[in-house]
Amino acid sequence: MLIFKSLELKDRDVINPYLRHQNYRASDLCFTNLYCWGRKFDTQFAVTDNWLFIRFKDNSGRNSYLKPVGTGDLKGAIDLIQEDHSSFSSPFQLRGLTREMMEEIETAMPGQFDYKLNRSVSDYIYTTEKLIYLKGKKLQSKRNHINRFKRENDWKYYSLTGNRVLVEECKNMLDKWMKVNKEEKDTSLVYDDYATTLMLDNFEYLNLKGGLVCVDNEIAAFTIGEPLTEDTLVVHVEKAFTSIHGAYAIINQQFIENEASGFLYVNREEDMGIDNLRQAKLSYHPDILLEKYNARFKQ
């Protein structure tokens, strides 16, 4: 029988050893995301010697699980969470499955699940080279935005890594950003603000990377990310004032150039089904759209 508990900051050292041994490049499998968004999704975890189990609520409040992460008998691991789910009234479901995960499940439990694409949580993955150099006709507009930003502004990039003073300044910028954007009445912004604040408050403990761009000595944009796998960095947060033309384009490019050049890929996470966010992420022409699926037992 599995015993689930809510994630706490101190659980990082329990969870990370399991996550380090996977290479799915999926943004869900990151302690920072699991912990900082845990309030929204009521995220809990359980462990055995070989497996990490993540339980959470989907956007409709239904009990859900990520694919168990670990080594050994995958069918036995799924049997454990199926048993755990017996106390819930909703259908048993696995969420956030990449094609690689689905293949592993099918090998262990052939023909037992139906799979459905969940486009809104699919991850956008780009090569670092693309995001740094923005080569080619398709990315001409991005280069134009950056060039205009550089022409029109007295600007400078600063790394947040190892600079607690600048991290605290980003909290002040976040407050200003929220005041500008709160009229959108998007309830997810409340959780976004909470998650971003947790990242800034625990920046060093979570071993995060970050960068900001100042215009006239005021923060115009900042970004937070961290290594996800050996070859992939994940970007958790990107905030910029749209009143400054090109602010989003410049922080995107500068953060990758200064903090992520040693990685092959950058995962810029999902679009949450928000149309303008989807268009923004598609406009950079992802090298990989890491599709994610939901799975339920066949009837």
Q: Give the name of the CATH superfamily of the largest domain.
A: Gcn5-related N-acetyltransferase (GNAT)
- Measured between the Cα atoms of the first and last residue, the distance is 25 Å
Biggest sheet layout: 7 strands, mixed
List the uncertain runs.
Answer: none
CATH architecture of the largest domain: 3-Layer(aba) Sandwich
> What structural category characterises the helix and strand content?
alpha+beta
Q: Helix tally?
A: 11
* Largest sheet: spatial strand order: 9-10-11-12-13-8-14
Shape: globular
Instruction: Quote the CATH topology of the largest domain.
Output: Aminopeptidase
Q: How do the SSEs run, as a string of H and E? A: EHHHEEEEHEHEEHHEHHEEEHEHEE
Beta strand count: 15
Q: How big is the Rg? A: 20 Å
Q: Assembly type of the shown chains?
A: single chain
Number of domains: 2
Strand content: 25-35%
The averaged pLDDT comes out at 96
Helicity, in percent? 25-40%
CATH class category name of the largest domain: Alpha Beta
Verbal overview:
The protein starts with a strand and ends with a strand. The longest helix has 18 residues, at 164-181. The strands form 3 sheets. A 7-stranded mixed β-sheet has the order 9-10-11-12-13-8-14, sandwiched between helices. Strands 1, 2, 3, 4 and 5 form a 5-stranded antiparallel β-sheet that branches. By secondary structure, it is of the alpha+beta class. The chain is built from 11 helices and 15 strands. The chain folds into 2 domains: 5-122, Gcn5-related N-acetyltransferase (GNAT) (Aminopeptidase), CATH 3.40.630; 123-269, Aminopeptidase (3-Layer(aba) Sandwich), CATH 3.40.630. The model has no long low-confidence stretch (mean pLDDT 96). Helix 8 runs antiparallel to helix 9. It is globular.
